[in-house]
Amino acid sequence: MSITVIIPTIxxxxxxxxxxxxxxxxxxxxxxxEMEQQFPGIKAKLIAGGAAHRFINIYxxxxxIRFCDGLATSLQDGDVLTILPAVAGG
Amino acid sequence: MNKxxxxxxxxxxxxxxxxxxxxxxxxxxxxSSTLGMEIECNDHPATNAMLSFAFKTPYTTPVTCExxxxxxxxxxxxxxxxxxxxACGIMSVHGRANNKTQPLGLNYVSAxxxxxxxxxxxxxxxxxxxxxxxxxxxxxxxxxxxLSETQYIADATAAESxxxxxxxxxxxxxAPPFVSSDGVVFELETLSAxxxxxxxxxxxxxxxLAGKGWTAFLLRYARAIAPIPNELVTAISNVTYQQISVxxxxxxxxxxxxxxxxxxxxxxxxxxxxxxxxxxxxFKTDRNNxxxxxxxxxxxLSGLRVVESCRRIQGPLAGHLLALLGAEVIRIEPPGGDxxxxxxxxxxxxxxxxxxxxxxxxxxxxxxKSSSGQAEMTELIRYADVFLHNWAPNKAxxxxxxxxxxxxxxxxxxxxxxxxxxxxxxxxxxxxxIPGTDFMVQAYSGVAQKISETCGxxxxxxxTLLDVLGGVIAAQGITIALLNRCMNNAGAKVTSSLxxxxxxxxxxxxxxxxxFFDINATSRSILNGVYVTRQGKIAIECCDDKTMQRxxxxxxxxxxxxxxELELRLGELFLLKTxxxxxxxxxxxxxxxxxxxxxxxxxxxxxxxxxxxxAGSYTKVSSPWxxx
Lengths: 90, 628
Known about the structure:
Chain A is of the alpha+beta class. Chain A has helices spanning 28-38, 42-46; strands spanning 2-6, 20-24, 47-48, 51-52, 56-60, 63-64, 80-85.
């Protein structure tokens, strides 16, 4: 499965300043594991205790993975995985 | 009640101001009264250009405080509350959710201006007591309005993927509040996705749609739009308010009906809260020999240290204002930094909207939940002049960082809490069980209903107006406590909240009902509207008969007997010229008029704002004060 990952600016220092990276995996967690192999340290910025950080939103295409199967959300070839930092409340 | 400025006096023509300063003058009278100040209203004739008052303390020379409309005296032009809302972009941000550029229906800019004006006077007095020779403080209504838009202007002008949200350019689906099957209008709130998912799933909404709704709901604070899918709005409209309340209780969601302002005025403790003002001051009774530190530069709070542990808008904006007054602000962030640093749009590696209100601070990353982190915090606060936080209720006590934990360690400390609901922590409040966020407080306080009456909508504004004014009020309370410390050698705790801010914002409603002061709180404008022209929109406000006469004569129309006929005629007439042409014509004869700013990027091209906006990786709003 070829997956495009959109990296937010705040994490680009970890991805050699790349905005879009191509990864592979059948689930979101597998993509993140592969990202960690290529860009050590990025996994800890995204997940803790088996779930995405409260302030990190991960979308598969337009769908927030919290409303699918979380990190176990399955992926299709060509899917776009977008990482968006955002905090609820004002 | 603790009245921190009992020994101080405010002197000015506050009871007979020009019509466009009426709301600002009322707010100044109200604040002065709640702070225990003696009010001397003189009979000096009001001027159109300026509202002036003197702030006096027993220990300083009087500070002359000036409130003006625009900053640029080269371009004098008539102004008013709604002209400022139009010209400075507030109507644009407020109008995003309703797809219509329109006024808030609140004397918002006037309230912000009044709070900043009094704070400027108090800060100048602190400066004098610390060796500066400041005798004059000036604030413009335009600078107050731009300050309110700081984060939105940053978003719109960010270097990387700026937010281009202009009313009318995109039709957004319905925003909250929601309406139940029995007609109750209400807000929902949660700060995490789990309750949201459970709630909507129980209403039969698919998780995919609930997720799309969550994204809109999550980002509404930043974007001032909330494109909730219609399926969610329909699902909730099929259930009674009582059933929804039960469902909220079951799933961890919070709910608050949009209450009428009269319901709020009838609340049991409302009169007490109104009389008290937006702050609760708790002064240390044993006085200490607090040596006033000398100022380190020309700004009145320079040389003072503020430690800030705040998230989101209200608290950080308060810290930002103290930094603009010269204070050194040390911002405590969790290890790894505040997550909001990464929230797009970005400029030079940081969220533009985050940087807009945190750019002047030094950052220390501390895990405040750990004992070593709490020890580190304690050491920082030991040598600070101010500690400011906006944690959830009771969290300070859990962290051993409550006022009682710190007051003996640093007797001169000003301990500030920028809360959501209550300013009286000693009394149990059921409201503390629900998130005290901007939109919930708008709903509870009557602010949302006031906005809806003006705008023809169901609820409040997605412009975070209480967070912003709440930040101003928190900073003002801290400044007042610092002056009290200078005068009486006593530290203090000062608490303000979004709810107390809403009471402050609607202070005129209670005045109009009970007439505590011998003045009219507000005067309703004779004409107040936004009109489509051949190019762009124009806002016009005629606050009195004379202005209305000039307006009618200039346009060469007959004063229609029916307002609807007049509106129809005006609608036709304004299509004949551009907004800029009409603004020039009307300003020439002293009628408050301005081209409505719909795209916030237009602000920094406007020469009128050149002294208040600084271009760069995003457009920064400068300090609203100037001191001499």
